[in-house]
């Protein structure tokens, strides 16, 4: 599904002395099939934006009986018009799955099966039979790379950190959402755990959820994985570019208080020595381009 | 003098494999030691044993020569301060200054002294302007700095950071790294920095790698990062720059293992046209 936001503004505690503008006239389109990245400093509005995508934060227009004539806000996720009061938000949430930061903190049930089944029973269309539930839960647990038979009756609290996170993700993808949104999916894991989670997201992107949106602070992760990246800064979208173009703007990004991938730092340092490496900032492409220019002989 | 010494220490959580297994480890006074290891390797158990939060099943732990036991616990905790992982679960008060005062009040310091120590600790972590701020409104990095200040107010000689940066964004991580480095340099505090960000280990004089409750590698951080194959067997990923150096070498560009971007760029520049 294609996600379109135009002129989206959000103010926390509006009309109170504590009012704080978190989103300021944001326009952004995420195409179907993308592996989309969202970056920005803490407090830049990233999380506020993604919480709009499945209606956790509702645009004011969707809470009014009638739309104001001069309200320019557009927010659509595929067929769903999120500015309309008539939208079926339960159906939307089935289609747009949301994985929060540290999702393992939300595990609650006595067994892995019950935990994953909870989301399914809540969001599935109609009233699923026990057989349907079991099939869906089994598929979701297997999709996140865990052995269903061994793990289904185990308490989620007895699992390792990486496994807990997988179970939490299974609990979201169990409704087969078309779009999966994840806030910092790899945060707090050790390097191997991080790599495993990113590999999992790519597998899901190929076979399970058409569109994946990740919020991340890890620029290497963004450069390696994303088709396009939106940069949030003080509630506005500063850039929407593929990593190849975005990370050429090293100095501008550093000025916004953001980091750049290691490959971009190396390209910058090489550029100062008169060597321009034109790569897409993935490690593989960087190495290929550098090695292609190797001089003959020993060095 | 040895600040911390573990002699043949073993500890297990209930049944199952020991979390710390016949461990010998020491840190000299004034040393900055990084402790690396994958999740479940025993790093945090080491920290908790050193502070007396856990009691060893076997072996002996000494802090500045004093054996850690139930009798010495309150003295040990004046020497050893520990900062944990989660910025949202360490505060005990709602205002910054009350939180920093908590530990100092607990050891019964006079009121004026507590006031002085709050000032000292908040200055040391760069949080003095936030003295009367509400903790819940601070950023993750700021919350961790307040947690460090709370420990500093007790004037510890050893500070243990148990993955204190793992839940922070890159800016928060830099803030903590800078504060800890300064405290080590200026206050001569012995630091045990537990982390799985390999890059952060570079702050240290010495790094140790834990696996299955044992220390399996030890040396200068840069030297440890050069031992790729070994790191991989302990389930540790190389820092990204290490991967690039290795792959360049395999491709015929002589890039020595380095962790400096400028140094690597210089080596590449010499080999490409």
Please give the structural blueprint:
The complex is a heterodimer of chains A (299) and B (273).
Chain A: E1 3-12, E2 20-30, E3 35-40, H1 46-52, E4 74-77, E5 80-81, H2 89-95, E6 96-99, H3 112-123, H4 130-143, H5 148-151, H6 161-173, E7 179-183, H7 191-207, E8 211-215, H8 219-225, E9 228-233, E10 236-241, H9 243-246, H10 250-255, H11 262-272, H12 283-292
Parallel strand pairs in A: 3-8, 3-9, 6-7, 7-8
Antiparallel strand pairs in A: 1-2, 1-4, 4-5, 9-10
Chain B: E1 2-11, E2 20-28, E3 32-36, H1 43-50, E4 58-63, E5 66-67, H2 73-79, E6 80-83, H3 96-106, H4 111-124, H5 140-152, E7 158-162, H6 170-186, E8 190-194, E9 206-211, E10 214-219, H7 221-226, H8 228-233, H9 240-250, H10 261-271
Parallel strand pairs in B: 3-8, 3-9, 6-7, 7-8
Antiparallel strand pairs in B: 1-2, 1-4, 4-5, 9-10
Helix pairs in contact in B: 3-4, 3-5, 4-5, 5-6
Summarize the structure.
The complex is a heterodimer of chains A (299) and B (273). Chain A is α/β, with parallel strands linked by helices.
Low-confidence stretches of chain A: none
Helix proportion range of chain A: 25-40%
Shape of chain B: globular
Question: Percentage of helical residues of chain B?
Answer: 25-40%
Quickly name the level 1 CATH class of chain B.
Alpha Beta
H and E string of chain A: EEEHEEHEHHHHEHEHEEHHHH
Largest sheet of chain A: 6 strands, mixed
Low-confidence stretches of chain B: none
Provide a count of the helices of chain A.
12
Explain this structure.
The complex is a heterodimer of chains A (299) and B (273). In chain A, strand 1 and strand 2 form a beta hairpin. In chain A, 42% of the residues are buried. Chain A has 299 residues and is an alpha/beta fold. Chain A is globular, with a radius of gyration of 21 Å. Chain A folds into 2 domains: 258 residues, 3-Layer(aba) Sandwich (Rossmann fold), CATH 3.40.50; 33 residues, no CATH class. Chain A is built from 12 helices and 10 strands. Helices cover 37% and strands 20% of the residues of chain A. The mean pLDDT of chain A is 92. Chain B is an alpha/beta fold and 273 residues long. Chain B has one domain: Rossmann fold (3-Layer(aba) Sandwich), CATH 3.40.50.300. Chain B has 10 helices and 10 strands. In chain B, strand 9 and strand 10 form a beta hairpin. The longest helix of chain B is centred in the middle third of the chain and has 17 residues. The model of chain B has no long low-confidence stretch (mean pLDDT 90).
């Amino acid at each position: 599904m294609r996600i379109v936001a135009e002129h989206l503004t959000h103010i926390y505690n509006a009309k109170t002395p504590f009012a704080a503008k978190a989103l300021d006239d944001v326009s952004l389109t995420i195409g179907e099939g993308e592996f989309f990245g969202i970056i920005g400093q803490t407090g830049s509005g990233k999380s506020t934006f993604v919480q709009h995508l499945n209606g956790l934060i509702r645009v004011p227009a969707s809470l009014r009986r009638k739309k104001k004539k001069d309200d320019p806000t557009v927010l659509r996720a595929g067929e769903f018009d999120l500015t309309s009061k008539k939208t079926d938000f339960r159906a939307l949430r089935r289609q747009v799955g949301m994985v929060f930061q540290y999702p393992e903190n939300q595990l609650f049930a006595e067994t892995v099966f019950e935990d994953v089944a909870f989301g399914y029973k809540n969001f599935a269309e109609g009233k699923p039979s026990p057989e349907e539930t079991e099939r869906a839960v089994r598929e979701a647990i297997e999709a996140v790379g865990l052995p269903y038979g061994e793990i289904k009756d185990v308490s989620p609290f007895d699992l390792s950190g990486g496994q807990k996170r997988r179970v939490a993700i299974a609990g979201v993808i169990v409704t087969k959402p078309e779009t999966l949104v994840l806030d910092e999916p790899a945060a707090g894991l050790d390097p191997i755990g991080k790599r495993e989670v990113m590999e999992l997201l790519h597998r899901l992107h190929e076979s399970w959820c058409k569109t994946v949106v990740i919020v991340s602070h890890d620029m290497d992760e963004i450069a390696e994985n994303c088709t396009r990246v939106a940069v949030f800064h003080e509630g506005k979208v500063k850039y929407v570019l593929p990593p190849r173009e975005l990370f050429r703007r090293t100095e501008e990004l550093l000025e916004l208080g953001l980091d750049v991938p290691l490959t971009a730092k190396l390209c910058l340092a090489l550029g100062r020595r008169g060597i321009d490496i034109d790569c897409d900032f993935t490690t593989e492409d960087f190495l290929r381009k550098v090695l292609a220019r190797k001089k003959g002989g020993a060095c | 003098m040895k600040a911390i010494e573990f002699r043949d220490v073993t500890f297990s959580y209930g049944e199952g494999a020991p979390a710390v297994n016949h461990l010998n480890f020491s840190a000299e006074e004034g040393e900055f030691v990084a402790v690396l290891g994958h999740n479940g390797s025993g790093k945090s158990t080491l920290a908790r044993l050193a502070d007396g939060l856990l009691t060893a099943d076997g072996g002996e732990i000494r802090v500045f020569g004093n054996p850690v036991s139930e009798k010495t616990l309150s003295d040990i905790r004046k020497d050893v301060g520990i900062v944990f992982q989660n910025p949202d679960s360490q505060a005990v008060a709602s205002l910054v200054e009350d939180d920093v005062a908590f530990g100092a009040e607990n050891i019964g310091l006079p009121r004026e002294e507590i006031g002085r120590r709050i000032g000292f600790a908040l200055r040391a972590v760069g949080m003095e302007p936030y003295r009367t701020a509400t903790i819940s409104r601070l950023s993750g990095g700021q919350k961790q700095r307040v947690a460090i200040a709370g420990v500093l107010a007790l004037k510890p000689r050893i500070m243990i950071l148990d993955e204190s940066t793992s839940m922070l964004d890159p800016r928060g991580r830099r803030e903590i790294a800078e504060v800890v480095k300064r405290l080590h340099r200026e206050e001569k505090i012995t630091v045990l920095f537990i982390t799985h960000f390999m890059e952060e280990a570079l702050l240290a004089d010495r790094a140790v790698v834990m696996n299955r409750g044992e220390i399996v590698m030890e040396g200068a951080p840069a030297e440890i990062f050069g031992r790729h194959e070994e790191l991989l067997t302990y389930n540790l990923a190389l820092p990204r720059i290490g991967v690039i150096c290795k792959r360049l070498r395999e491709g015929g560009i002589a890039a020595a293992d380095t962790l400096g971007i400028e140094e690597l760029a210089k080596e590449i520049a010499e080999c490409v046209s």
